[in-house]
Design goal:
Helix content is 35%, strand content 12%. The chain is α+β, with helices and mostly antiparallel strands. Helix 5 (177-188) crosses helix 6, helix 6 packs antiparallel against helix 7 and helix 6 (234-248) packs parallel to helix 8.
């Protein structure tokens, strides 16, 4: 990523001046524009962006194929303050109604808002750590859209709404619970309640049978059809929203979450555990799984997501006085936990295997990765703790297959802990093959 100006991106710009203000449209018919204003009068000019590395030379050029707006102002000696303000606004919005019309006030308002964003402040001997914690607050704040609250993939790169991407937990940690609840309400309202005949797996031939087609059970009852792309980030979404509910005990959140969670658990069982053995197939459901292949077999990640969700559904049913639902969810949670312990736990190694082969010899693949150790149901975490102590590199850094705090990890789901000082993360490469999801469904 170029941290400066990319002149090539100026192609197609349309620029309009209104006195000392400018509007920059990215295309001739774009509805939105970047509107800018400086509180000191100067000379505005449309220049050729290819010369932007030399400001004076840039101002002397005439725009051709790469128009960019620039300006020339006089600086004053001694103490001098100049304010610029730029914002995205509707192309037809009256300039006088925009915050950029008063740059000094816009700056002060922005500064005041930023002070409220730093909800967590620390004071340590390391100023870089203090600054990093403050920066996290701004990142999590910027990563959530408003009205309605929707969390995005990222604040800068990949700045698109993305259901369940691992950012919701940041809002929970910083106490922005209203944002999490708003995000939950928005997506729960979109959940499919009528599958429209989608009951079987249907790999998509246009995608070499590697992902599911539009008529698959994957897109049927219980699925959230917006902002998921081809992934199953829906399991991550519920995992994070459940944790926010546990952090607050918010009755309104519980009212939103409980019926949506029931549909979700029906969806994951029929999609990822059709043989009802208690182990669930992972279908691109954790952050780095773009290149992980499970051959359709039961795996740790989705099983752990399902386990934690059933535990939450049990607690919600008990709180609602629904004994039958509570018993049903508890029975399912116990089955998943038992399946993990009996089929994927490697007692001699002290960790779970990556997945179990669906067919053939039904072998457990023992070459685990770090995600498969951060689980909500550790049958023998003291053994993992012992293994962690042995699994350091000569420099003292944690190996990627090690867990810095087994006690802490034992109560967390996959993806909820990031190993900051990890090395040698193991990954499996995708090779062309049949649709994993359809194999697991028997389709």
């Amino acid at each position: 990523m170029n941290l400066g100006i990319d002149p090539e991106r100026c192609s197609g710009n349309r620029i309009i001046f209104e006195g000392q203000a400018f509007r920059l449209f990215p295309t001739a018919d774009a509805p939105q524009a970047a509107v800018g204003y400086c509180n000191r009068e100067g000379e505005l000019h449309v220049a050729q962006a290819s010369t932007q590395s030399r400001p004076r030379q840039l101002f002397d050029t005439t725009a051709r194929d790469l128009p960019i707006t620039c300006g020339l102002i006089d600086l004053r000696p001694d103490d001098d303050s100049i304010f610029w303000a730029i914002q995205s606004a509707s192309g037809g919005a009256a300039f006088s109604t925009l915050p950029v019309a008063t740059p000094e006030k816009a700056f002060q308002d922005g500064f005041d808002y930023l002070q409220t964003v730093e909800r967590v402040q620390i004071h340590t001997p390391d100023p870089r750590l203090d600054a990093a914690v403050a920066a996290v607050c701004h990142t999590i704040d910027a990563n959530c859209l408003r009205d309605p609250y929707i969390f995005r993939h990222g604040s800068m790169a990949f700045s698109i709404p993305f259901l369940g991407w691992r950012v919701i937990c940041g809002a929970t940690a910083l106490g922005w619970h209203e944002r999490v609840k708003g995000d939950a309400a928005y997506y729960a309202a979109l959940q499919v309640t009528d599958g429209g005949g989608r009951t079987q797996a249907q790999p998509d031939p246009d995608k070499r049978l590697c992902v599911q087609g539009p008529e698959s059970r994957f897109y049927g009852r219980g699925h959230i059809p917006r902002d998921t792309h081809m992934y199953n980030t829906q399991s991550q979404f519920f995992d994070q929203v459940i944790r926010d509910w546990r952090a607050t005990g918010d009755a309104e959140m519980e009212k939103i979450l409980r019926p949506a969670l029931e549909l979700h658990l029906e969806w994951v069982r029929e999609c990822f555990d059709p043989d009802d053995d208690g182990l669930y197939e992972s279908y691109i459901n954790t952050l780095p799984t773009d290149s992980v292949w499970y051959n359709g077999g039961g795996s740790v990640e989705e099983s752990a997501y399902a386990y934690y969700a059933h535990v939450a559904a049990t607690d919600m049913a008990r709180r609602a006085g629904d004994a039958n639902a509570a018993a049903r969810h508890q029975q399912r949670a116990d089955k998943i936990r038992q399946a993990l312990a009996e089929k994927l736990w490697l007692a001699d190694r002290g960790h779970y295997g990556l997945y179990i082969e669906q067919g053939g010899h039904g072998r457990v693949h023992s070459d685990a990765w770090v995600y498969s150790e951060f689980l909500p149901s550790m049958p023998a975490w003291p053994r993992l703790s012992s293994r962690c102590k042995r699994s350091t590199t000569p420099s003292g850094h944690w190996n990627a297959s090690a867990c810095p705090s087994a006690v802490k990890c034992a109560s967390l789901p996959i993806g909820s802990v990031e190993v900051v000082r990890a090395r040698h993360v193991r990954r499996r490469s995708l090779r062309p093959g049949p649709c994993l999801f359809s194999n697991r469904l028997g389709g």
